[in-house]
Amino acid sequence: MIYLLRSSLLLAACLLFCSFRMDDDPERQRKYDYYFLEATRLKSQKEYAAAFELYKHCLEIQPDAPSALYEIAQYYLFLNQKELGEAALEGAVKGDPDNYWYNQALAGYYQREGKTEEAIELYKQMMVRFPGKQDPLFALIDIYGDASNYEKLIEMLDLLEDKAGKNEQITMEKFRIYLQIKDDKKAFAEIEGLVKEYPLDMRYLTILGDVYLQNDKKEQAYETYRKVLSVEPTNPQALYSLANYYEQTGQKELYEQQINTLLLNKGVDTNLKMNLMRQLVIRNNQAGGDSIRVIQMFDKIIEQDADDTQIPMLYVQYLLSKQMQEETVPVLEHILRLDPTNTAARLTLLGQAINKNDFDWVIRICEPGIEASPESIEFYYYLGIAYYQAERLDDALNVYQKALLQVTNETNKELVSDFYNMIGDIRHSKKEMKEAFAAYDSALIYNANNIPVLNNYAYYLSIERRDLDRAAEMSYKTVKAEPTNSTYLDTYAWILFEKKNYSEARIYIDQALQNDGEGSDVIIEHAGDIYYMAGDVEGALKHWQKAEEMGSESKTLKKKIKRKKYIAE
């Protein structure tokens, strides 16, 4: 393998200087060949300094060797020694004027360095020396274009056209230049010449009509479009151009008829229909009209192009902009029947289901969603919530575990934390406390400030009467983050209660009650417990009795009221 690699490098190096031989001195030639090949080998191994020295040695053996001059020029230019690099390149071209790459390198150098006259002269010589190469011609086109030398630019484009044949790109460029120098006659002659060159291609004739229209030759434009349509009555581009003609000439009804014809033409490209529908929407909005015409047109197009999804997606955007959420549902369902992997459509439909709190609908959307787009992690998240709400805990747990398999380094860490939070809640519901706490720990690894996790974790620890110091630390973070959240205030108060810090617990439970906590029988019962342990038996009874009236399902509440004392569960 090493031998083959070395052989290929030597062969490539030989090709660089095969045109130069020193037949009058075979020994000097042998030395030159040896050092040049060795320099090329070192260069291929990125030992540039050593290669540079050997190339210099080659020039000591033969000062005008083109191959060594070319190679060493690259080093001088890299080292910003431009005079030496330029001289070396000029020497290479002088020594081997028929080497295209030497010429190209020198001409490119002249052009980069602003030596425009030298570059032009060399490119012209290259066009003679290398008639099969088009790069010198393109380079001259760039130079003359940058210098706004339109006469020479046209001359070069004519040469290019002679080589490549008449084509749209060259013709349009010449047309633009002639317009710029205000030679309208030659400008239109260029387009007309293109039409004559390709008389059966109606696209070029349509382009001619567009050029007439753009340059205020409306009558000629109209006649040209009619000519195209007489040959191809359903030609989409000609129909569209004719619509533009009607618009520019103020023929509103004909314009709208033409647009309708285009939109209901199966041969019209979807992208063009999309643009036309966007224009229709904008015009309709600007005119202050109702949505009926736009909606009817969308419906007709969808009925006609039953397999297209782009127009229906635009339709959904329009309906949403008009606050017509309900009307998007059948359109979105149509899109998903055609393309189950259309994540944007599925997410939009999912938003509708979530807004309605319709968890059965969420399940119907997300179950096929994770099959069609397993990488879209949002579907797992909402499917798990829907299962949880439906008390399908095992299904929810299974979905979240599948979701974690889709997690990558690019996945939002806060979302991953929420997955673990949900797993923790499910494990807690199944009385699997060890697994629940492990899930909460994982959630906090991904997001140390996940407030719902901190609250739930802290509260469940307090119920277990374990790690109360850690529970208090986590719960206090939630209170600092949301000081008016009654749930978080209640959790912190209860942890202080379990730590037997009754006076401070009463402060926080009172804050919980003042912040909508009066609506929770659990918070009110906690208030009774805390009041009792703080020495306020009468206040405790009032809270316990109120919790009972609210329908509390506490197992010990009735005993507390009857015995007028706190009883731990």
Question: In words, what does this structure look like?
Answer:
The chain is mainly α. The chain has helices at 2-17, 26-44, 48-61, 66-78, 82-95, 100-112, 116-129, 135-146, 150-164, 168-180, 184-197, 202-214, 218-231, 236-248, 252-263, 270-286, 292-304, 310-321, 325-338, 343-355, 359-372, 377-389, 393-405, 413-429, 433-446, 451-464, 468-481, 486-498, 502-514, 521-533, 537-549, 557-563. Among the domains are: 166-267, Serine Threonine Protein Phosphatase 5, Tetratricopeptide repeat (Alpha Horseshoe), CATH 1.25.40; 269-339, Serine Threonine Protein Phosphatase 5, Tetratricopeptide repeat (Alpha Horseshoe); 471-569, Serine Threonine Protein Phosphatase 5, Tetratricopeptide repeat (Alpha Horseshoe), CATH 1.25.40.10. The chain is built from 32 helices and no strands. It is 77% helix and 0% strand. The model is unreliable at 1-23 (pLDDT under 50).
